[in-house]
Design brief:
The protein is α/β, with parallel strands linked by helices. 39% of the residues lie in helices and 20% in strands. Helix 1 packs across helix 6 (184-196) and helix 3 (62-69) crosses helix 4 (86-103). Residues 7-258 form the NmrA-like domain.
Length: 290
């Protein structure tokens, strides 16, 4: 990393996806700048230890966004609906970053959207990202829309359990419907490739995916790793929260995710190609019952 290395500003660098993007950029010799609420936090300090430049601020403060983007060669924006304002807050945050990119005359903005965002799904946390995409287009700035499918890391939080009779994967999705998925590591690798340029997808939208499996195949992958018998149970939609029910209903009733596996492979070729689910399970350190 030198002063002549490209400077990439990353929104969400202390989080899961933004952290993966930052790590991939650093591994390729780029300089990384992160917008952080608290530079003294553990996650921010870990970034600083790797040489990341920290800019205090948040997405509601236009002045801090302007400082954050000043002099950057490109930026990556990851927003979530997990704050108190939910999807409306996510839309507002994405719009704020886009407006700041316009003010900074940023050469390239990569916006982390979601697979299917352009298809008017009606899923609240997909629609919030679609609205941000539309605003970015209306501004006329040079942007790439990175649309990951279902994240494998979701399995660390729900869907996989262990009972007396073995391992059980439970999702509100018929077993006959395959689910496209991708590891966060590969989202980071793909984003880094696009931010550093020369991939041929800059200025477009790309839906990225690393694997595609039915419920029974997902269960088998976890069962093999845990050395346990495994089965899949399809849950009724009314057993999950409304946003999740809307998402899994879309998965089941339409040609949902449409990941470009070949393009994804090309984007992450430098880190060994995208992880399939068994490889991700091994790499993630997942253990049965944890």
């Amino acid at each position: 990393m030198t002063e002549s290395s490209p400077l990439i500003a990353v929104v969400g660098a202390t989080g899961q996806q933004g952290g993966a993007v930052s790590a991939a950029l650093l591994d390729r010799g780029a300089r990384v700048r992160a917008l952080v609420r608290d530079p003294r936090s553990g996650r921010a300090s870990a970034l600083a230890d790797r040489g990341v430049e920290l800019v205090p601020g948040d997405l509601t403060d236009a002045a801090s966004l302007d400082r954050f983007l000043k002099g950057a060669d490109a930026a990556y924006a990851m927003t979530t609906m997990t704050g108190p304002d939910g999807t409306e807050g996510e839309t507002a945050a994405g719009i704020a970053v886009a407006d700041a990119a316009r003010r900074a005359d940023l050469r390239h903005l990569v916006y982390s959207s979601v697979g299917g965002a352009e298809r008017h799904t009606g899923i609240p946390h997909f629609e919030s990202k679609r609205r941000v995409e539309e605003h970015i287009r209306d501004l006329g700035i040079h942007a790439t829309f990175l649309r990951p499918v279902f994240l494998m890391e979701n399995f660390l939080h729900y869907g996989v359990g262990v009972g007396e009779d073995g391992l059980v994967v439970r999702l509100p999705l018929p077993d006959a419907v395959p689910l496209e998925m991708i590891a966060v590591r590969d989202v980071g690798g793909a984003a880094a490739s696009i931010l550093l340029g020369g991939t041929g997808v800059e200025g477009s939208a790309i839906e990225i995916a690393g694997d595609r499996r039915t419920g029974s195949q997902i269960a088998a992958a976890f069962g093999e790793t845990a050395n346990l018998p495994a089965r899949y149970d399809a849950l009724p939609l009314d057993t999950v929260i409304p946003d999740m029910a809307a998402m899994f209903r879309w998965f089941a009733e339409t040609p949902a995710y449409q990941g470009d596996f070949d393009a994804t492979r090309a984007l992450v070729d430098g880190i060994g190609g995208p992880l399939d689910l068994p490889a991700w399970i091994r790499a993630s350190g997942w253990k049965a019952g944890r």
